[in-house]
Amino acid sequence: MELHTIDIAIIIAYILATIGIGFWISNRASKNMKSYFLGGNEIKWYMLGLSNASGMFDISGTMWMVTLLFIYGLKSVWIPWLWPVFNQIFLMIFLSIWLRRSGVMTGAEWIKFRFGDGRGANLSHMIVVIFAIVVVITYVAYGFIGIGKFAAVFLPWQLAADATQNEIMYGLIFTVLTTLYVVKGGMFSVVFTEVLQYVIMTIASVAIGIIGMQQVSPELLAKFVPEGWGNVFFGWKLDLDWSNLMAAANDKIASDGWELFGIFFMMVLLKGILQSMAGPAPNYDMQRVLSTRTPKEAAKMSGFVNVILLFPRYMLITGLTILALVFFSDELNGMGADVDFEQILPFAIRNFVPVGLMGLLIAGLLAAFMSSFAATVNAAPAYLVNDIYKRYINDKASDKTYINMSYLCSIAVVVIGTIFGFALDSLNNIIDWLVAALFGGYTAANLLKWYWWRFNSYGYFWGMMAGIVAAMVLPILLPTYTALEAFPINLGLSVLACIVGSLLTEPDDDEVLKEFYKKTRPWGFWKPIYDKLHAENPEAEPNKDFGRDMVNVIVGIVWQTAITASSIFLVIQDFKSMWISFAIVAVCTLVLKYNWYDKMEDYPADLAKEL
């Protein structure tokens, strides 16, 4: 693809600025491990929110969501619940506060806070470290594929004669560039570069949404989509018939297995609620929460992400989608059985974005890759250095030694993830593995750890082990099952292992449990521990906010979904539905203001007195 000199200059300027920021603030990041991994808990919550939103604004996910909107229309707003996208609501309402109260550096260190130092706790600690590293390596492979595909299409330089080799070369170049500033600057570098990347991405996203509105009228769009495409609601069946427009779209729906959309929705909702209540996985999302200055700021950061991420991102997604629907349908139909829906995004950008904005958009999408990749890479060495090297090998090393070890670990993780990326040729394969298989093994143990006092370290270890093994074995034993269909089986095996592992072993130490409950103060089945804490401190009160939290979660999910839908309705110019969505957003915002925001506490009243 040919790029104008202006566009090339913008892209190069962005890359140089990003790397420059990383090196410029490297001295601040390298003071000690806390500065390197958590920014010294000095970074303001809204900066972390911007950073977190930027980290979620990745190329591969955007390509996938453009495909979803193209085929499923407004009903596609429900499909990202697979991740689940509404986990940010659970974090915002209560889990970010609970997590930040621990004061730890990583998810594995949190295991020590919850289970103590016994043999079972050490086993649990190790399996969380292993899980975290597997997740990070998988995300690196996922990002490597996405950036290679994208850059090979949009950047003008042919680095290899073979198309696949060209993608690999671009993937390697941007992986190396991103690793440079992440390794050098740590969390400070990640956050400050991601704020820049978010600004670029938002400007480009809004511009693409406006171009889509200018080029595609509602009447023109209606000629290229089946009946019901613009309706966000659904029944038992999807009821989108592409037969007269694009038969391959019907084939895609069939291969996804989502024709019975009502059943799909119920499974996704159940899975999403359970995974959201389990809390964040040990990746960049958890690192942002642990990096905030206070528990209340952790909650505000998680809420802020919903506001600043969804609306501009879906303006981009919708603008690209409607341009492709109207102007790319003939080419897609011409591909026949070999149709590649991942080409929708490149086509729309290549044909409809003007000079100047083209460079900004490409820089923004490169930024999306670099930010999500950077956040992932920054999370990895925290586990390897803090949770393995420092804990088991050398706990008396200097800060400089730990920082140098972090550099080496970051590079090693990137190299391994990139090697895995070579073996994977489909974004969908990795998405399926992440959202349903791998995280299916994570759910049960990490759900019970918050809400049941008798769930101990051995139960956690065996629950995680059962889930991870099932995630690897079930695709072999049940090859006709999708990852979502296999999730209940995986969950059932994990729950059984959790309960049996806990009840066949002794409870964890009372002092550990009391300290955890005292600081975290979760609701759930904690009465025996609360009674012991109350006997020592009569001012201690249990958490009575379960009902209020659940109401706020429901309101928050409606609020989040309405923000998403309103952006799509704006770009497709369904203004009646847009204003209804805005009204829902406004009402939900008021409810959350009075029932959530005004009632947040950094710590329970009795603990706050001690602190």
Structure, briefly:
By secondary structure, the chain is mainly alpha-helical. It contains 27 helices and no strands. The longest helix has 53 residues, at 163-215.
CATH architecture classification name of the domain at 5-428 = Up-down Bundle
> In whole angstroms, how far apart are the ends?
60 Å
The helix content is over 70%
If you consult CATH, what is the topology of the domain at 5-428? Sodium/glucose cotransporter
Q: Could you name the CATH class of the domain at 5-428?
A: Mainly Alpha
Radius of gyration: 24 Å
Major pleated sheet: none
User: How would you name the CATH homologous superfamily of the domain at 5-428?
Assistant: Sodium/glucose cotransporter
What is the percentage of strand-forming residues?
under 5%
**How confident overall, as mean pLDDT?**
83
**Structural class based on helices, strands and sheet pairing:** mainly alpha
What sort of overall outline do the alpha carbons produce when their principal axes are compared?
globular
Number of E strands = 0
Poorly predicted tracts of residues: none
Number of helices: 27
Order of helices and strands: HHHHHHHHHHHHHHHHHHHHHHHHHHH
